[in-house]
Amino acid sequence: MKLEVSIKRTLLAVACLSVLSIGTVAADDKRAPDNAATNVRDRSGETQTSGDQSNSSADLKTTQAIRQALMKDGQLSTTAKNIKVITANGQVTLRGPVKTAQKSKN
């Protein structure tokens, strides 16, 4: 009986400490995200954004077909599947993060 109570108290203490440590780690990162360069790039008009997606039926079908192919490919990561697909006047632009500069050129 005493052993059972001791184990329960130990587990409760470990659980409380875990919650406190997770809260501390989350509170440590108070930096504001620095996406100023991304915002400037997107406002410049030199890059395609989701607002540039055409509403023509041909462009919408192209975008839909690409998106469906991405979702169907089981070898792609979640990040790869979450890229932006933008089609305007038959031209497709894919936007999303890449791990290295080399991969962005491929």
Summarize the topology.
Blueprint: H1 2-28, H2 36-43, H3 57-72, H4 78-81, E1 84-88, E2 91-95, H5 101-105
Unreliable residue runs: none
Task: Give helix % range.
Answer: 55-70%
Name the helix and strand elements from N-terminus to C-terminus, one letter apiece: HHHHEEH
What class would the helix/strand composition place it in? mainly alpha
Overall radius of gyration: 24 Å
Overall pLDDT metric = 75
How many β-strand stretches? 2
Global morphology: elongated
Oligomeric assembly: single chain
Number of helices: 5
The biggest sheet, with number of strands, parallel, antiparallel or mixed sense and barrel status, is: 2 strands, antiparallel
Classify the beta-strand content into a percent band.
Answer: 5-15%
Widest sheet: strand order?
1-2
- In whole angstroms, the N-to-C terminal distance is 65 Å
Please give a quick description of this structure.
The protein has 106 residues and is mainly alpha-helical. Helix content is 57%, strand content 9%.
How would you describe the overall organization of this protein?
With 106 residues, the chain is mainly α. It has a domain at 49-106. The chain is built from five helices and two strands; from the N terminus they run H-H-H-H-E-E-H. It has a two-stranded antiparallel sheet with strand order 1-2. Strand 1 and strand 2 form a beta hairpin. The longest helix has 27 residues, at 2-28. The relative contact order is 0.09.
